[in-house]
Design goal:
Pfam families: DAO. With about 400 residues, the chain is of the alpha/beta class. It has a domain of about 230 residues: FAD/NAD(P)-binding domain, CATH 3.50.50.60. About 35% of the residues lie in helices and about 25% in strands. The chain has twelve helices and 18 strands. Strands 1, 2, 8, 9, 10, 11, 17 and 18 form an eight-stranded mixed sheet that branches. Strands 5-6-4-13-14-15-12-16 form an eight-stranded mixed sheet, with helices on both faces. A hairpin with a 2-residue loop joins β14 and β15. α1 crosses α10 and α2 crosses α3. The chain binds flavin-adenine dinucleotide. Flavin-adenine dinucleotide binds next to α1, β12, β16 and α9.
């Protein structure tokens, strides 16, 4: 089988890239090891956000104001793109609600930092969607007395993540774009005029390849080159049975300011609560129990409400905390490393990735200007992640 461009991975990144390549008159094929959305795209928290792991003020300090502004614009572009995609592709059941997000300060130090950030965003970037809430408003918003204040960001909202990715795939298939599931790419090989993707079901020949495997880049050796530049980090979620009491009436996403961040939202009439998952290859009962304990401490009103669903997935972290869209060489492009915030960005990045594949110039801010560095001491990354996470938990516990 042959195509102009072969894309590895049928999550938001892979499907978005296929969409924009096809719109440019190029024939893509998407090859997925498992099912559509089987990676993070089908199992995430559905928080539609335009933020990055590095704050915009910090970007202005490390790079310059223009860079921070470009990244802020990119985040808004990604959020807007979610609504446009649902409309243009006629995606049913994505249930996108642009209700914004609320960052909940877990102590006074965190609140002061949020206030400084809000002042900077409104004063320097002119972002009028940002405002601060006091303790009473936080109680009214969250039902919890845990938070002395918070920062409301009216950009973004919440979505049904699996229906979004499935709807995207259905629309692309309807346009005649080929998507092959249950077909892991096991090896990449060079030919005189292109590249071969080896699978157990045959070989796909293409002129260009796009790697869109993010936190799942260690499934096979085909994506070894990017695997060594990512740290997969397990993110876990639990959901309660259907709630019989009102909660989180504004229907936003809510995140805590702790370094080992916990977040929550309502979805399908349940409370969904997320945070760090187990270290290593598999889920652990202890990580889910820790999440449930934190949820019940924060929301004592959930006494008697059972947790009925528990699951986790892998996010792709990078050494510089930034996502990256770049080329490995003249044949292979990759986009990955969303550091846990990829619903909006990964589903928009195909716009830029398609241009890069076609050899056109594209500006996705730091995503395209910074190089993706390898993870030093890759073999000991798991104990290193454990060590850093333990240190962050310690800082959270002592209120720093
Ligand atoms: C539990 C959890 C909660 C999250 N919550 C949020 C949130 O609320 N908001 C937010 O913005 N982001 C969130 N994220 C992050 C977000 O889901 C990801 O950034 C985004 O889905 C990345 O999409 P992707 O298409 O790049 O990768 P993925 O969706 O992970 O897709 C990669 C695909 O590549 C396939 N693959 C891998 N190797 C091969 C191979 N050799 N051959 C063929 N196919 C292969 C995999 O099977 C997989 O389907 C969360 C992530 C997790 C895990």
């Amino acid at each position: 089988m042959s195509a102009d461009v072969a894309i590895i991975g049928a999550g938001y990144t892979g499907l978005s890239t296929a969409r924009y390549l096809a719109a440019s008159g190029v024939e893509p094929v998407v090859i997925e090891a498992s099912r559509i959305g089987w990676g993070a795209s089908g199992r995430n928290g559905g928080v539609v956000s335009g933020k990055f792991r590095i704050g915009f003020a910090e970007m202005a300090r490390r790079w310059d104001l223009e860079t921070a502004r470009r990244m802020h614009d990119l985040g808004i572009e990604a959020i807007d793109h979610v609504g446009e995609t649902i409309e243009e592709l006629g995606i049913k059941g994505a249930d996108y609600r642009p209700t914004g997000s609320l960052r909940c300060a877990h102590n006074q130090v965190a609140l002061d930092a949020l206030r400084a950030e809000a002042d900077w965003l409104t004063g320097t970037l002119g972002d009028q969607a940002i405002s601060m809430l006091g303790p009473e408003e936080m109680k009214a918003e969250t039902g919890s007395r845990d938070f002395p204040g918070g920062m409301l960001n009216r950009h973004g909202g919440v979505i049904h993540p699996l229906n979004y990715v499935l709807g995207m795939a259905r629309a692309l298939a309807g346009q005649g774009i080929r998507i092959y599931c249950e077909t892991p790419v096991t090896r990449l090989g060079r030919t005189a005029d292109g590249i071969e993707l080896h699978t157990d079901r045959g070989v796909v020949r293409a002129r260009q390849v796009v790697i869109a495997t993010n936190g799942y880049s260690d499934l096979t050796p085909a994506t070894d080159a990017v695997r060594r530049r990512l740290i997969p980090f397990r993110s876990a979620m639990i959901a309660t049975e259907l709630l019989d009491r009102p909660m989180l009436e504004h229907d936003r996403s809510y995140t805590e300011t702790r370094r080992m961040m916990r977040w929550f939202r309502k979805a399908g009439g349940r409370l969904v609560y997320g945070g760090r998952g187990a270290f290593g290859k598999a889920d652990s009962a202890a990580a889910f129990a820790a999440l449930e304990k934190a949820m019940r401490r924060q929301f004592p009103q959930l006494a008697g409400v059972a947790v009925t669903h528990r699951w986790s997935g892998l996010v792709g972290m990078t050494m510089d905390s930034l996502p990256h869209l770049s080329r490995l060489d003249d044949r292979v492009t990759f986009s990955l490393g969303y550091n846990g915030t990829g619903v909006a960005l990964a589903s928009m990045i195909g716009r830029h990735a398609a241009r890069m594949v076609l050899g056109q110039k594209t500006d996705a801010g730091l995503l395209t200007s910074e190089a993706l560095r390898p993870v030093p001491f890759y073999e000991i990354r798991e104990p290193a992640v454990r060590l850093v996470a333990g240190y962050y938990q310690f800082l959270d516990a002592i209120g720093r």
